[in-house]
Amino acid sequence: xxxxxQDIAIDLRRVLSGLEPDRLxxxxxxxxxxxxxEVERLAGSIKLxxxxxxxxxxxxxxxxxxxxxGWIADKTLGSFGDAISTLETSARLDALPQTAEALRRGEISxxxxxxxxxxxxxxxxxxxxxxxxxxxxxxxxxxxRARDVAARSGSKQTEIARYRAIHKSRYxxxxxxxxxxxxxxxxxxxxxxARLVAxxxxxxxxxxxxxxxxxxxxxxxxxxxxxxxxxxxxxxxPAGRARSRGAGRGTDSVVVRVDxxxxxxxxVKGTETCEIRGVGPVPVVTARxxxxxxxxxxxxxxxxxxxxxxxxxxxVDAHVLSALEERDRECVVPGCEVTERLESHHFLTxxxxxxxxxxDGLARVCKRHHDLITYKGYKLTGGPGKWALVGPRTxxxxx
Length: 399
Ligand SMILES: [Zn+2]
Known about the structure:
The chain is built from 18 helices and eleven strands. Helix content is 53%, strand content 13%. The protein is globular, with a radius of gyration of 28 Å. It starts with a helix and ends in a 9-residue tail after the last strand. α4 (68-76) crosses α5 (80-92), α7 (110-122) packs antiparallel against α8 and α11 crosses α12. The chain is an alpha+beta fold.
């Protein structure tokens, strides 16, 4: 089987490299798309059928992946989410012999098999009728029927069982897009989801109103994203909470790894890195900014050697922090009177290399001004009693 597949791949590569769509008639192009779609579908079915068994080989671990899904995503150059659903469906096929058979005969697509696998979790007896709908082709019809299957069971026991199954399969996953964008995906019991959405919506409205009062408008999706972060993180830094429980083992902190050179320069060059462990690359200015957060640990490296580990929240003397809170009761930017959710800004760069943990290098600013300083080129100068916010071009005071 393997050799045959490898031969097919070689043939396909030949076809691909010789393809010149402009030379085809439009009708020929349509036929080519159709044939290619079939090849894609059949190859997908092969992958789907073999995925679950392949995941048991541990080859993914040997190749340095953290999970079988990561390995599949890497092989297909596809998304992590797709890889997970491929694996889940593949594992379900043992219990769905008719579906596996339909795949083998090329009658249904991998996408259709995924729908059947999900729907039959609610009603295993529905496999046959779902496959009939699938064989007739339309994905939309199949989804409709799957929803019918879910809805019709109708007894107190099945309702409870279905709810429990959803709750049992709950998850929260995250990964990074190629450009470093952070992505989140969750599956929750419906009532938990509803509570979450209600909270996010109301916080999003508050943030949108606040932005509007400053003459800015926020896209609805953007304000919801901000609301999620705001709601979750404003409950307090995880390390702080761990400490108050007397734990403080440091397992719950954000770990940033950055080259010393990059940290000094302000951006990465060449092979230098600046990344949050488990999430991905971030701009150096972001790393500098989060230095003041009590739950962030920064590992400064010099090539491969670790030069210093800064754990501001733990190494800054509690007295220094209290003194700072006492000194800067509101955002230090002249004219700004924000007192809520202030962030520690360390305006001396030496601090970024654990040079000092004294009060001298620290100031508390509001989130908006911290943003301006971090991302818009503003600088905080002066010192207690004579703070000034210098704009990127003008020498004007704060906006
Ligand atoms: Zn401010």
